[in-house]
Write a structure and sequence with these properties.
Helix 21 packs across helix 22. The protein contains 29 helices and 35 strands. With 917 residues, the protein is of the alpha/beta class. It binds glutamic acid. The site of glutamic acid (GLU) has 12 residues, from helix 21 and strand 31.
């Protein structure tokens, strides 16, 4: 836990002065060990603090060590703080190793103006002095340029600032945690809090660049908002806009200098409430005074890399800021990193000298000469392999010289100040010891008894309407409707009071991306104009991120409202309709095939060969009634239910005829029955039967309620081609969009117009406007719910009550009342227009009869062959002839299809034949 931050800030300012003094003091001494002169203090130096004296003495004592080798290191810094930290770092390091053969000598310059040329000149100046390493510049802009020069000169270059463009140069080492790893930590924390929508607040291009990786990796809804100063020099204008937009989850990336001010002004505009959550990405968050927000209930979390409770950090903080500073809370990351960098450099150089017996020999280098130092790579490589525990934890590099393995503490602002609630490790990820951000509301907070709410609604039938009466009504009495009844039921169950107000513009809630504000009911809730909103308010992901919703009290989907289908005018060829085309074709084919079968069977069957002159006992020839023509006539006669004078005689032909008659009986009955259906049932048609067909035609115009959930459903269509086509049409034809559902229904009734509407409202409309109906299946599945401010303590109570009303059937009863009983309901009297239309019979319906016919005909064939064989057998037996010979003879006659007359062999001829044999 940190001590009072205000006190520390004051001390910090005092100590900065001390650091300045320290710098003047040391620089004013004759800082050249080679000359070994007694240092002379400048007369202007104010009284140094004890720490300074200690450092100076430490430094001076080391000047007397003759065997000590000096290593000159250079620094290029943007501000005096960094320069002072550098200076202190060399003293701390030298002080830590009084007997060491190496001693660091510092030489630094300020390059305040980000001017690359100045940085270049000063680097050259340092190189001429024979530096063995350069720290900085801390400006991102000039660092890359200097890096190229130092690479050429093979001088170790140590950076400590955030640099997205980390170049993998040989001589570069950056102690700042790698941006991509930091981004992972930020994403993990935001995920842990379960945010599905985030607003990133940044103050300049550099902070935007710092969070660009986060913005591109974040998988949910992200809005970027720049914190620019308004005409009064404050951030209030932009913060007010953000507040109006209903945004509640913020990732703040700004410099530590303005962070406190940003948070203070956020509090002033009302953005420091229980509803608001902040993740602060600046690793110096702990150095900002957050005491004013401790009791706001706002969830403020952040990170730190410097552990202020560590004894080493405390010691360094005291050395920098003076003895009176008891803790390390004020130590900034950049200061800590410079000290760690110098320490790492020194430790590496010392190891090289003592362990590897490497002699570090420095010499002056000229920028415009081609020579370079020869030990740079050795030192840098040694540094990469070295691990030191510094102020920013364990300093360790990967082979490319990036600092990827580090641990961050997760901090949260509590009423007791900032406390550590977990840690983030680049290997393990996030570990939070307290999983929930928001504490459950107390029983008292959650209870609604005797609370008074402002309930806002729109005048949308049948959810909220003005009573139709001549009496002068006041207050809640003026309104009626489904929503009004529902809120009344809830108030009776939960014991709260309420006052109804009306949202005049009639909008439920649409987000304006230009002004970044919500309108309608959602805007009223966010703006604090009302506590609860009840109407035909659809729950959408976008709205859910701005307000809280109860459980849905009604389920619905988007559908199309259009005129009822019209009956098709009767057709001339209606008689064809009972059978499908396949059945008709099959019937025709069957007719020919069966006729042919009768012809064949007739020829085969001996019984069908009859005496043309019954009076002549022994006819000379026989005739067959089943000629081709007669067979066709016989089958058509029975198909038409008329019959013919032809009567089958043989068993085979009679069997086949029986099956054929059965077939015709079934076919004709089916035809008659289905024709009756076609003649009595009206076939209804609509110009389109679903949303795809509607989008493909151009004759009928269509629209939806402007700014409503339905229009937004098409707007957020993504890759869905039909939905995006509809949205394009809506965008191009604003005149087709309506102000409300009533207007849409009116236009649908009177014009060539289709209206996208929610199914529940369509149900209501078609109950009253009898010429309208719903077309096609619902396009989605969603619901209406009551909206309230984010993180409202009473949401669960209201949801539970809604569930109870649903279970007891109260909500269904209310729906029945407002949909089916009140205000002109029942006009259309359920005409059952949706009765099933008659459909043609297809093969599946009549396939069985065809099968029976097939089996019967095959049977007829078999019988006719058996009949023939039997007759020949009996004849040959009687006449003592040869069966085979007779059978072949019969078959030969059979295939002579043209011969319709069969000659009869007389018994005389037969006897003669026998004798000849
Ligand atoms: N229920 C819709 C909404 O909440 C309004 C009607 C519509 O868009 O169809 O925005």
């Amino acid at each position: 836990m940190r001590p009072s931050q205000t006190k520390i800030i004051k001390r910090r300012i005092d100590c900065r002065k001390h650091v300045q003094n320290l710098k003047i003091l040391i620089e004013s001494s004759s800082w050249n060990s080679a000359s070994a002169q007694t240092p002379v203090f400048s007369r202007n130096v104010p009284n140094p603090c004890p720490t300074m004296l200690f450092l100076v003495l430490l430094h001076l004592s080391s000047l007397n060590t003759i065997a000590t080798q000096e290593l000159r290191i250079g620094g290029l810094f943007q501000d005096e703080d960094d320069e002072a930290a550098f200076l202190l770092a060399t003293h701390i390091v030298n002080g830590k190793h009084p007997d060491s053969p190496l001693r660091l000598v510092h030489d630094s310059h300020l390059t305040r103006d980000h001017n690359t040329f100045t940085a270049y000149t000063k680097t050259c100046n340092l190189l001429e002095k024979g530096v063995v390493g350069i720290f900085g510049p801390s400006s991102v802009y000039s660092s890359a340029f200097i890096q190229t020069l130092l690479d050429r000169k093979e001088i170790p270059h140590i950076e400590t600032h955030w640099d997205r463009e980390l170049l993998r140069h040989n001589c570069l080492l950056n102690l700042h945690p790698h941006p991509s790893i930091l981004t992972r930590a930020f994403l993990d924390l935001v995920d842990q809090w379960g945010w599905k929508r985030v607003t990133v607040l940044y103050d300049d291009e550099e902070s935007l660049a710092r969070l660009s990786l986060f913005a591109s990796s974040y998988r949910h809804w992200l809005t970027l908002r720049r914190l620019y100063l308004d005409s009064h020099g404050t951030y209030r204008a932009v913060l007010t806009g953000i507040k109006k937009a209903g945004e509640t989850n913020f990732v703040v990336e700004c410099s530590v200098e303005v962070l406190g001010e940003v948070l203070k002004q956020a509090q002033q505009v009302g953005m420091m409430t229980e509803r608001h959550n902040y993740v602060i990405t600046n690793l110096d968050m702990q150095t900002v005074d957050l005491a004013p927000f401790q009791f706001s209930g706002t969830n403020i979390t952040g990170f730190r890399i410097v552990n202020p409770d560590s004894a080493y950090v405390e010691e360094i903080a005291q050395k920098i800021y003076g003895e009176e500073v008891q803790t390390g809370w004020n130590l900034r990351v950049k200061t800590a990193l410079i000290i760690d960098a110098v320490e790492l450099f020194y430790e590496a150089a010392l190891d090289l000298t003592l362990r590897e017996r490497f002699v570090i020999r420095s010499y002056p280098l000229l920028c415009n000469a081609t020579n370079n130092w020869d030990s740079g790579h050795t030192i840098v490589n040694y540094m990469k392999g070295k691990t030191v525990t510094g102020l920013t934890g364990v300093v360790h590099f990967d082979t490319e010289g990036f600092r990827r393995d580090f641990v961050l503490d997760i901090l949260e602002l509590t009423p007791d100040g900032l406390s550590k609630i977990g840690s983030w490790d680049s290997g393990v990820g996030l570990t939070i010891s307290r999983p929930k951000i928001f504490e459950a509301p107390t029983a008292d907070e959650a209870s609604l008894v005797n609370k008074t709410f402002t309930v806002i609604t729109c005048l949308t039938t049948p959810y909220g309407m003005l009573k139709e009466t001549t009496a002068q009504l006041t207050g809640n009495d003026r309104f009626e409707g489904f929503g009004i009844d529902l809120i009344e039921e809830l108030s009776q169950m939960l014991g709260f009071n309420y006052t109804i107000t009306i949202q005049d513009d009639g909008y439920n809630g649409d987000y304006n991306w230009t002004t970044n504000e919500w309108n309608g009911l959602i805007g009223a809730i966010i703006g604090g104009k009302a506590d609860l909103a009840i109407a035909d308010l659809t729950v959408t992901a976008e709205r859910e991120s701005a307000v809280d919703f109860t459980l849905q009290f009604m389920n619905l989907g988007i559908s199309i409202l259009y005129k009822k289908p019209k009956p098709v005018p009767p057709s001339l060829f209606m008689f064809v309709s009972p059978f499908s085309y396949t059945v008709w074709l099959l019937l025709l084919g069957t007719y020919f095939v069966v006729s042919l079968c009768f012809f064949v069977m007739g020829r085969l069957s001996p019984s069908e060969w009859t005496n043309p002159f019954p009076c002549v006992e022994e006819p000379e020839y026989l005739i067959n009634q089943f000629s081709i023509r007669n067979s066709l006539w016989f089958t058509i006669g029975s198909l038409m239910q008329q019959g013919t004078e032809i009567a089958p005689i043989g068993i085979s032909t009679r069997t086949a005829a029986g099956v054929w008659w059965f077939f015709t009986l079934i076919m004709v009955s089916s035809y008659t029955a289905n024709l009756a259906a076609f003649l009595t049932v009206e076939t209804l048609v609509t110009p389109f039967s679903n949303v795809k067909e509607l989008s493909e035609q151009t004759e009928i115009k269509y629209g939806a309620k402007r700014g409503g959930a339905t229009a937004n459903f098409f707007k957020n269509s993504g890759d869905d081609s039909v939905r995006s086509k509809i949205w394009k049409f809506m965008l191009a034809h604003d005149e087709e969009m309506t102000e409300n559902n009533e207007e849409g229904a009116e236009r649908t009734e009177k014009e060539h117009y289709a209206f996208f509407m929610e199914s529940t409202t369509i149900e209501y409309v078609v109950e009253r406007r009898c010429s309208l109906a719903s077309v096609g299946p619902p396009l989605d599945d969603k619901g209406y719910a009551i909206a309230m401010k984010k993180n409202s303590s009473y949401r669960n109570e209201l949801s539970a009550a809604i569930l109870k009303l649903q279970e007891t059937g109260r909500i269904a009863a209310l729906k029945e009342k407002w949909w089916k009983e009140k205000r002109g309901a029942g006009n259309c009297g359920g005409r059952g227009d949706e009765a099933a239309a008659a459909t043609p019979l297809n093969l599946q319906n009549v396939g069985g009869v065809f099968l029976v016919l097939f089996v019967g005909t095959v049977l007829g064939f078999i019988i006719s062959v058996v009949e023939l064989a039997l007759r020949i057998y009996l004849d040959t037996k009687k006449r003592k002839g040869c069966f085979r010979k007779e059978f072949v003879k019969e078959m030969k006659f059979f295939v002579r299809f043209k011969k319709n007359v069969k000659e009869v062999e007389s018994s005389k001829c037969h006897d003669e034949e026998q004798r000849n044999h």
